[in-house]
Amino acid sequence: MSIEEREGNWDSLTEGDRALSLFTDRYEFTRLFVELLHQEPASEQLLFLHGDGGNGKSLLLRHLRERCCKRLAAEQWQQQRGRSDAELAHLIENLRPTEFIPVPAVLHDFGQSIGIDRPQDPFYGLLMLRRNLAEATVGLPYRLRFPLYDFACVWYLHQKGKSPQEIKSLFPLSDVSGALSTLIDAVSGNAFGAIAKAALDFVVEDLEEKVTLYLSRIGSPKQKIQEIQQQDVDRQLIYNLPRLLAQDLNAAMSQRQAPKRLALFFDTHEAFWGQQKNLSDTLLFERDEWLRRLLRGLNLKAGIVVVVAGREAPRWGEAGTVKPETEIPSQYLRVRPVGHLAAADAQVYLQRVGLTDGALRQALIDYASVEPNQVHPLYLGLGADGVLQANDRGVQLTAADFTTLPETADKSKVLITRLLKYVEPEIAYAVYALSACRAFNFELYRLLGQTLDFQPTRPSFELLTRFSFVWRTQRQGQTWYRIHDLLRRLNDAERQETTQRAHTVLRHHYQAQGEAAEAIYHLNRLDWKQGVQAWVKTFDQALQYSRYEQCRTLLEVRNELVIRSDFQLGRVSRAEADYFAQLARYREAVQEYCEAIVAYDQALLQAPDDISALNNKGSALQCLADVQARLSQHESAIQSYAAAITAYDQALLQAPDYIQILNNKGLALSSLADVQATLSQHQLAMQSYAAAITAYDQALLQAPDYINALNNKGLALRCLADVQATLSQHQLAMQSYAAAITAYDQALLQAPDYINALNNKGSALQCLADVQATLSQDQEALANWQASLALFNRSLQLAPNHESIRKRRDQLQAFLDELNDG
């Protein structure tokens, strides 16, 4: 049973094959993992390993995945389980293929984003995991299938405008045949009946022997397919995908031929937050929400073993304070710290490397130690790399070369500098160039070599990727690498010349590839402010056109943006808040708006009269108030609108004729009045509408043809008239409606096809007609209703898919038809 159901809610010295051959220590973790593979009944706990960066967690996960995913026969396990940790670890590692049952395993690294492989993304990250799960069982006598999840993915991608070819490219080649291919073609054909039939055929056919159990878990496939099609893909479906994948995986593990155990490894959990610190709980838990939803949905009793690694222990038990349906209570977590190497194990490691000089080994261990008997694996590997490279150049380093090294908080810098001293100059140059890459392969290495004038040969690439600060990963069947974060941050912080030149090359490369987020990342490293400005502009444009996938890609890069001013931090937080608000994720939106307001306040501490900061603060407060009003938090909304108006007034003291700020003030006053009218505070509402109209008039004195101010003035006049009509102040209401129509006419003189003004004028005419009808001015009312209908029709000619205008037009048409019939 899953947590969801129980809780009731929904090749270097440190990487590559050589690294595994040198792997030492960690015997207690090998035992812990092997016991999870053999425990009967299966454990219902997730294993979470945490510790400092560079202490070997990633290598430990690789070791467990590649060397320890083995099950013994029950009798044999009982015989061997009494061995010591070290003995058991050596036994498991050295089993012959005929002596164990292989356990399929998948490693999902959140820190490696390359192209469409975006492991943190709630859609593409989950799809990566599904693809790797299928590939993990290739060649084995069983296959894992994901029918409902696959249909939901195909439906999502189709709704996002992906072609059949693009959709098929995202699934494993072995799966894109038969029923799945037919399903993709049917969905892309847009014939609803054909889609429904193909989806049902695909799900039911794919269920095979597990159909009875599967149906008992999920209910009617037909009903589930309909539910998927009815969900908004960006606001609902994407957050249900983790549960669908978990349900499918649970069902797959119930097959007679399914493996007894399946291992899921998740690495670099901290990558969800990147360089962002001190986030509120709401924003902190939002980042890895899809992962928690997936883990909650897994039935661990079915034999699914989960191991997660990150720098800090998880706070998943606290997630219920934000969203109860995403909490993972502590009883389902087994949290274990991963420390550094013991000195004795460090000696074994260096002996395996080939260092025979005992005094040199001890000096290396002493320098790499962060505490007594706590040896930092990364420092140890860097030191060993330096010794070996020196040996290759005919230089024999001794203990004295390390005992005289400076004691510093950043030993990695010292050790890397020493290491690069003993490599070929072109290799050192390449290291600095590749430090600019978030991830690289030989093609990027060759690109940088050709443009930065070093020789990008295969032998030099092989040598470079064997260093201890180069990490390896797999992406879509290809091997990629990245320079350790410590070195990347060091070179960026010091603005190392070669690294900066590489950022320029990579910026242009990714621009040409159409990968805006990657290009912005490199621009940010060249000029942090330009990078932030480009991020905000691109993000706002993507949000304007509902390109939510691009927004998510930019949000991943945002974790690594360098932002050195509170003002720019406010702009970024405001953009993120708008994204959450548009997706109706109001809790996150409120938190981000508050983050933006705090950032602007910090900026104003340095420059109290900064007009842009005051205006932006007012805008963030206004948007916060809009969300609060939408949530019926009326008193909070009133306070936020009032604070926004105060910020605008402070800005206007510095620039009384600033038309954008006057327009913004008018909008805030109008919105405040809307809330007051909702609370039947009619006199206050009329005062606020009147103040809004005054603000718009002040803007129009400076720019008589300012279309936004004309349209907004018309809206305020119409809303004022609505309140007056409610109070039976009919003559005043008709005057206000007429004034609103005049404002719209002035806007339409500048832009005859301005849909907002056309639609708003139609609404004002209809409201005016309603008042006239109340006063028995029937001919005038009929003429205005007909004029309103004509404007709605004109608006629909310009925007045929505008549903709210169509609905209002149809209602008015039905009313007029009934009136004529009468």
Q: What would you say about this model in short?
A:
The chain is mainly alpha-helical. Helix content is 64%, strand content 6%. A five-stranded parallel beta sheet has the order 4-5-6-1-7, with helices on both faces. A two-stranded antiparallel sheet has the order 2-3. The protein has a two-stranded antiparallel sheet with strand order 8-9.
Percent of residues in beta strands?
5-15%
**Largest sheet data:** 5 strands, parallel
- Rounded to the nearest angstrom, the distance between the terminal CA atoms is 64 Å
- Strand numbers in spatial order across the main sheet: 4-5-6-1-7
- Name the helicity range: 55-70%
User: What is the radius of gyration computed over CA atoms, rounded to a whole number of angstroms?
Assistant: 32 Å
Mean pLDDT: 89
The strand count comes to 11
Unreliable spans: 10-18, 208-214
Could you explain the architecture of this structure?
This protein has 822 residues and is mainly α. It has 40 helices and 11 strands. A 5-stranded parallel sheet has the order 4-5-6-1-7, with helices on both faces. Strand 10 and strand 11 (478-483) form a beta hairpin. The longest helix is centred in the last third of the chain and has 21 residues, at 586-606. The relative contact order is 0.06.
